[in-house]
Amino acid sequence: MQSQSLGLVEKKSLSLPSPLVLEGGDTLDRVTLAYETYGQLNHAKSNAILICHALSGDAHAAGFHQGSDKAGWWEIMVGPGKAIDTDRYFVICSNILGSCMGSTGPSSINPKSGKSYGLAFPVVTIGDMVNAQKALIDHLGITKLLSIIGGSIGGMQTLEWSIRYPEMVFSAIPLATTQRHSALAIAFNEVARQAIMADPNWRDGNYYGDKKPDMGLAVARMIGHITYLSDTAMRNKFGRRLQNKDTFSFNFGADFQVESYLRHQGNKFVNRFDANSFLYITKAADYFDLTTRQAVDHQSPFAKALARYLVVSFTSDWLYPTSKSKAMVKAMKKHNIDVSFCEIEAEWGHDAFLMPNPRLSDMLSGFLDRMNKEYHP
């Protein structure tokens, strides 16, 4: 059938029924999660797919909100007749804990002080994000997800789900992700965090209601954006072309197109994202490490996994290179897990999973179709 958009969709909100105990030892008494759903949940509640978003994403994965012409961040993949077919599946996407897009995070009001949390917000982990999502899935009355899909930090959540709640995950699709950050990835995140904290408007995170650390956040976004692209993508898109000029300005303005592009991305980001959320989410990604659990539990984190996996990497992703995915697949195969792996040729770098790609779409569609048949024999 011809694919089409979901059209108008609605953002929803859930207040978790009980306090959330965090891995760091703190407890959040009141937690709200923003989420959206698409398609219809079948009578057996067995056609549900959870989509986990990346760092700066939100619950708005597809369709349009009333009064806005901006489509969801994975519009190319989610909708009627698309790879994640909402005519067949009930699709859920929730904004993660610690974010600023409708879920509880450092910009939320601390019920104890009546002011925004700021740095009083406890440090959260990928596991904490998954535990909050688990409460949402319980609220929806779903006992087992047909699949969980996520790229980048969303892939970390996907892996965490399949290990933390193996009985609830029939299949999992981690895209462009890793079992743990390399020193290089941590280094980029740390430089980005330092850019925010060095902004004089940051003021130890207590900037709400006043000037925000926009310059620091913009620089942090520029640093991150460089890691999302590839050398080939940047060379093809910008080369050394100048921006609206024929010669150098001999000052520190944006001479090159790539400079202008990064500044644009940074400035656009400050209008929609909270600097403290950036700190918390990048820290959660840096803390994520499935391999250390093996040392603690004396067994591979995948020893208890029950999901069928589809692991996908991209040739130009130097942030989470294919070698990371292969190591993940190798660890899964040691436990005879049903795992398929594919490295997709793509020049866009880490962000390739967000770009139109017929091969990726066909792969997801085919895998989900197989999972659906195996789940409903």
Concise account of the structure shown:
With 377 residues, the chain is an alpha/beta fold. It contains 10 helices and 12 strands.
Explain how this protein is built.
This protein is α/β, with parallel strands linked by helices and 377 residues long. The chain has ten helices and twelve strands. The protein has an eight-stranded mixed sheet, sandwiched between helices. The protein has a two-stranded antiparallel ribbon with strand order 2-3. A two-stranded parallel sheet has the order 6-7. α9 links the parallel β11 and β12. α1 crosses α2, α3 packs antiparallel against α7 and α4 crosses α6. The radius of gyration is 21 Å and the shape is globular. The chain starts with 11 loop residues before the first strand and ends with a helix.
Q: What order do the strands of the largest sheet run in, or round the barrel if closed?
A: 1-4-8-5-9-10-11-12
Give the topology string: H per helix, E per strand.
Answer: EEEEEEEEHEHEHHHHHHEHEH
User: Average pLDDT, to the nearest integer?
Assistant: 96
Secondary structure category: alpha/beta
Biggest sheet features: 8 strands, mixed
Portion of residues within helices: 25-40%
Poorly predicted segments: none
